[in-house]
């Protein structure tokens, strides 16, 4: 574990991902009370950073339509006073399914088989369907899974950067 943490080097965003991942993993029932605000803020920041990149960097590709959808979702979540987990679960599921559809398109477009990518696609599809079918029951588990995903994403990204993939 110490070796994995040392591989993070001075990438502060990686540290943030790992810290947020640990918090989500350890305190899902507390996070549920604030998830609509947290997700709204994260989506707005994501959109702002991507729009900034779009306007200031020539090589930054952005799906403006997707950003508009994310902004609408963030406003709906922010205004959701009752903290309706069903609505948030459906939104979370739809965002995940949208991301998986892009992965599937990339997978088919480049004809590059990757067992890891296939496993991630199948896992995301399964978890999204669970969240659509019964969001109130599965929401806490999904928060923990998101925590695990954030932690592993950092280490997977570091591994791919070091291996040149």
Model description:
The chain is mainly alpha-helical. It has one domain. It is built from 8 helices and no strands. It is globular, with a radius of gyration of 17 Å.
What are the salient characteristics of this protein?
disordered N terminus; 8 helices; globular; mainly alpha; 165 residues
Q: β content, as a range? A: under 5%
Oligomer classification: single chain
Give the mean pLDDT: 77
Contiguous low-pLDDT stretches (5 residues minimum) are 1-5
Helices, by number, come to: 8
The number of domains: 1
Helix content: over 70%
User: What spatial form do the alpha-carbon principal axes imply?
Assistant: globular
* CA(first)-CA(last) distance: 23 Å
Q: Major sheet: size, sense and barrel closure? A: none
Based on secondary structure, the structural category is mainly alpha
Over the alpha carbons, how many angstroms does the gyration radius reach?
17 Å
Write down how many β-strands occur, each being a DSSP E stretch of 2 or more residues. 0
What order do the SSEs take from the amino end to the carboxyl end, as H and E?
HHHHHHHH
């Amino acid at each position: 574990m110490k070796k994995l943490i040392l591989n993070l080097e001075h990438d502060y965003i990686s540290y943030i991902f790992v810290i947020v991942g640990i918090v989500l993993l350890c305190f899902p029932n507390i996070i549920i009370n604030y998830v609509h605000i947290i997700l709204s803020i994260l989506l707005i920041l994501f959109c702002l950073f991507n729009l900034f990149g779009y306007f200031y960097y020539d090589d930054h590709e952005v799906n403006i339509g997707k950003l508009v959808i994310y902004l609408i979702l963030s406003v709906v979540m922010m205004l959701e006073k009752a903290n309706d987990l069903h609505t948030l679960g459906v939104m979370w599921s739809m965002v995940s399914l949208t991301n998986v559809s892009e992965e599937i398109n990339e997978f088919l477009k480049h004809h590059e088989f990757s067992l890891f990518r296939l496993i991630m696609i199948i896992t995301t599809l399964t978890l999204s369907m669970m969240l659509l079918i019964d969001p109130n029951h599965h929401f806490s588990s999904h928060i923990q899974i998101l925590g695990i995903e954030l932690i592993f994403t950092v280490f997977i990204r570091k591994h791919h950067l070091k291996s040149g993939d």
